[in-house]
Design goal:
Layout lengths: L2 H4 L13 H11 L4 E5 L2 E6 L1 H7 L9 H10 L12 E2 L5 H11 L3 E5 L5 E6 H11 L7 E7 L5 H11 L4 E9 L2 E8 L5 H9 L3 E3 L5 H4 L1
Parallel strand pairs: 3-4
Antiparallel strand pairs: 1-2, 4-5, 6-8, 6-9, 7-8
Helix pairs in contact: 2-3
Length: 217
């Protein structure tokens, strides 16, 4: 999956002269995680929720309400903008974008074309939606989780066992936990027991919450 297929296209942006109060309102309503700052068609940077909150006056201020309101209408985004904006292209793999966001602790990434023009935005909400989609959660069925050796042909073998039972596979995923390879397959059935039995008969260790319970108790 590529970023360009999942990025947001219609999203709110602000300008350097947008008031901080208006930016705060837009951020609350849009739930974008951050706001991109544009000057015409040029991407200048971004503002984060914490930047906006830090710029707002404390409730302990000695100023009168009308004085605070006046000052806040004068405070604009250009005073708090962050210019260390990270951009990616639409051809970026979705997992690579997620890794950038994770390692840099970013709420989102601007997506630009080859000319550097802003064409989209991707944030944590989009990433979560992609995860749900890739795991096949909304398509129903049940999950089979099993430990597998890190060797060639594991998925092919397991898929063959399931296909031989006339059951369709909705999604597959591989995770690593405590040095072990964990395979998760969502299948289009309401009863995973026969599949579990078949996999165990071929030497796979089928796992469930009980196998990990000692780690979260």
């Amino acid at each position: 999956m590529y970023v360009g297929l999942k990025m947001l296209r219609n999203f709110v942006t602000v300008t350097p002269k947008t008031s901080v109060l208006e930016a705060q309102k837009l951020l609350d309503e849009s739930r974008l995680g951050m706001l991109l700052v544009m000057d015409g068609g040029r991407l200048l940077g971004y503002v984060r929720p914490e930047d906006l909150s830090a710029s707002l006056p404390s409730i302990m201020t000695s100023l009168e309400k009308h004085e605070v309101k006046y000052l806040m209408t004068r405070l604009t985004v250009d005073k708090i903008i962050r210019k260390d904006i990270k951009t990616i292209g639409p051809e970026t793999e979705i997992e690579a974008a997620a890794d950038i966001m994770f390692t840099s602790n970013l709420a989102g990434l601007a997506v630009v074309d080859q000319a550097g023009e802003l064409i989209g935005y991707i944030n944590r909400s989009v990433m979560l939606d992609v995860l749900v989609e890739e795991m096949g959660h909304r398509q129903g069925g049940v999950r089979i989780t099993f430990e597998a050796q890190d060797r060639t042909g594991v998925l092919h073998e397991a898929a063959g066992i399931i296909a031989g039972m006339g059951i369709s596979i909705i999604s597959t995923a591989t995770f690593y936990h405590d040095g072990k390879r964990i395979v998760v397959i969502r299948v289009a059935t309401d009863d995973a027991a026969p599949i579990a039995t078949a996999l165990e008969g071929r030497g796979y260790r089928v796992m469930g919450p009980a196998d990990f319970m000692h780690e979260w108790q």
